[in-house]
Design goal:
The chain is an all-alpha fold. The protein contains 3 helices and no strands. Helix 2 packs antiparallel against helix 3.
Length: 104
């Protein structure tokens, strides 16, 4: 999640807010693709988990260049990024359910 560009997310949120208010959206604000940004974030979380798993395996097999502290830090980074992605997913599901329950 640290690789996720927060300014792009904020720009998209501003653009959606302007559209909802019926205002003109500046061209620079509409250039971000939310689905691509979400896919990049998921891929970054997956990469973090994969590298933590590889470090853990290397430590378990006795590789000399991997310390326990490095393994623990990598594992905690993977855990934090996964928990953050889980919270984003929960918020998206909540937003979807709220939109679906709106009267037409």
């Amino acid at each position: 999640m640290s690789d996720m560009n927060v300014s792009q997310v904020l720009a998209q949120m501003r653009s959606m807010s302007l559209q909802a208010g019926g205002q003109e959206v500046p061209e620079s604000a509409g250039n971000t693709d939310f689905s691509a940004l979400l896919q990049q974030s998921i891929a970054a979380v997956n990469d973090t988990q994969q590298s933590a798993g590889k470090m853990t395996e290397a430590f378990e097999t006795g590789a000399a260049n991997v310390s326990l502290a490095d393994v623990m830090v990598a594992t905690q980074k993977a855990n934090v990024s996964f928990q953050a992605m889980l919270q984003v997913r929960n918020k998206l599901v909540d937003a979807y359910q709220e939109v679906m329950n709106m009267p037409m």
